[in-house]
Write a structure and sequence with these properties.
By secondary structure, the chain is an alpha/beta fold. It contains eight helices and eight strands. It has one domain: Aldolase class I (TIM Barrel, Alpha-Beta Barrel). Strands 5-4-3-2-1-8 form a six-stranded parallel β-sheet.
Length: 186
């Protein structure tokens, strides 16, 4: 079973996804989100300073902001993000080894799946909440709408190409738990 990702993310309809390079950027992003009443941030592991910034944000804002690590593409990065203080892990895809490692960290985690085969493999791994990335490239609202009746009990958090105008279409779907994006950080 997936360890708590539904519980940690379901209070939020939007999961801000941030690519941060400096503490100044982190402070600006976190302050901006908290002023908007958004209590979660996913810091991607796309920069050399990402793990240090997860540690910094978790320490400085952790009492008011749930801090996740995104773009977790290897077991080593999952373990490093957990040690840095991430409260949850997000991967654009999944392998059996990565899922096992994410489980072993004890943190809630959100692995990615796009195709019917990947979704069925996720179901075999007892995963019920999946990242759908990049949503706009792989059919977006229409794909997730079609999946709703086929993959009952599976919820998605789509990211990639979603903006303030399109998020309502995604959130109206019965199998979308939340949406991820960066538009609210600009």
């Amino acid at each position: 079973m997936q360890n708590g990702i539904r519980e940690i993310l379901s209070p939020f309809s939007i999961i801000p996804v941030a690519v941060l390079h400096t503490q100044e950027q982190a402070d600006l992003a976190c302050t901006n989100l908290l002023e908007k009443g958004i209590g979660v941030i996913e810091i991607t592991l796309r920069t050399a300073s990402a793990l240090d910034l997860i540690r910094y944000v978790s320490t400085r804002y952790g009492s008011n902001l749930i801090v996740g690590a995104g773009t977790v593409c290897s077991s080593e990065r999952a373990e490093a993000a957990a040690k840095a203080g991430a409260s949850f892990l997000v991967s654009p895809g999944q392998t059996e080894q990565l899922v096992n490692t994410m489980r072993n960290t004890g943190l809630p985690f959100l692995p990615g799946a796009i195709s019917p085969t990947e979704i069925q493999q996720s179901m075999e791994r007892d995963l019920e909440v999946l990242k759908f990335f990049p949503a706009h490239v792989f059919g977006g609202v229409s794909a997730l709408s079609a999946y709703a009746s086929v993959f009952q009990g599976i919820d998605f958090i789509p990211t990639g190409g979603i903006n303030e105008q399109s998020m309502a279409d995604y959130l109206a779907l019965p199998n979308v738990l939340a949406v991820g994006g960066s538009w609210m950080l600009k």
